[in-house]
Specification:
Blueprint (H helix, E strand, L loop, with lengths): L2 E9 L8 E6 L7 H11 L4 E5 L6 E6 L4 E2 L3 H13 L8 E6 L2 E9 L4 E6 L4 E4 L4 H8 L13 E4 L3 E6 L5 H4 L7 H4 L7 E6 L9 E3 L1 E2 L8 E2 L3 H15 L7 E7 L7 E10 L2 E8 L1 E10 L4 E3 L1
Parallel strand pairs: 2-3, 4-6, 11-12, 13-16
Antiparallel strand pairs: 1-2, 1-19, 3-4, 4-5, 6-7, 7-8, 8-18, 9-10, 10-11, 12-13, 14-15, 16-17, 17-18, 19-20
Keywords: Isomerase
Family: Belongs to the PhzF family.
Protein name: PhzF family phenazine biosynthesis isomerase
Length: 303
Amino acid sequence: MKSVKVYHYDAFSQEPNKGNPAGVVLNGEDFSEAEMQEIALRAGFSETAFITKSDIATLGIRYFKPGREMDLCGHATMASVYALKTRGLLEDRTKFTMETKAGVLPIRITETKDETRITMKQATPQFKKFKGDVEALANSLGITPEDIDSELPIVYGSTGNWTLIVPIKELSVFKRMMPNTEAFPSVLAEIPDSSIHPLCLKTYHSDADMHGRHFCSPYSGAVEDAITGTASGVMGAYYATFIDNCFEKPLNLVVEQGQEINKDGRVRVQVSRDEQNLEVEITGSAIYVEEFDLDLGGRNSNG
C-alpha cells in the first residue's frame, strides 16, 4: 500500500493553530495527479502543497484543495518554503524560483534572530468589473446592501487566483457574515468559480492597514480560509489602484485576517510600480505543527 507523509504547518503566524494551516508533501513527484487530489481530500486542509521537480525553475509546486487544483496559494507556499528551509533542503539558498501554474515566481528568504521571513512575488494584478446584483451578493454573505461601502468599487481581482473584493463599511459587519457559498456561482456570473473576499479599512490591530475574510468557491471543497496570501496580495493591489493610486514610493501594507474564527494572521504586502504595471509581493512566515502518514486507500496515523 502506497504511503505519504504530510507535514502540517501554519502560515502567517508564529504561534501554532493561530495561522492558516496547510499540508506540505515534500516528495510530490512520487504521486499522480489523482493521488494528489486524494491526499488533499483526506488531509483535510484548505490547501495541500506538493513539491516537485522543475525544468524551468529551482523547484515546482502544485496546490490542491479538497475539491480541485489551484493555480497559486500564498499560505501553502509560505508553509512549503519554511518546511524546505528549516529541514535543510534548500542548503544555503536565500533566493530561488518556484514553478506554479500561475507562472514562475521569485522567492526570497530573510532570516532574523526571531523569525524566518519568506517573500514571494505574485502574478501581475488584474481587475474586472462586477456587473451582478449587489443585493444578491449581500444576501449570499448574510449581510445587507447597506453594509457595503458604496464609495469603493466591487471588483474581481487576481494576483494568481480570482476573488471578488467587497468593500465593507464597518468592522462589526464581519462578525455577522454567514456565507451561503452554494449561491456564489449564480451571483458571480462573470467568474462563477471565484471566491469572495470582503475588505475593510478599519482593523482590530493598530498596525494593520486592512482587514479581510475569505470565503471559498463551493467548487473548492472548503468554506473559509483563515489567512490568505494571494487574496492579501489582491487587497494590496486594490489599495494601490482604488484607494491610494498616487503613491511614488512602494506601499508597505499589513493585512490582518482570521480574528472572527479565532485566528490572528498578518500578511505584509508591498506594492510598487514597474512601468505601467503594479508589482505585488507578500511576506510572511510559518510554524511547524505536526506530521502524519496517510496510506492511500487506508487509515491515517498521526505522529
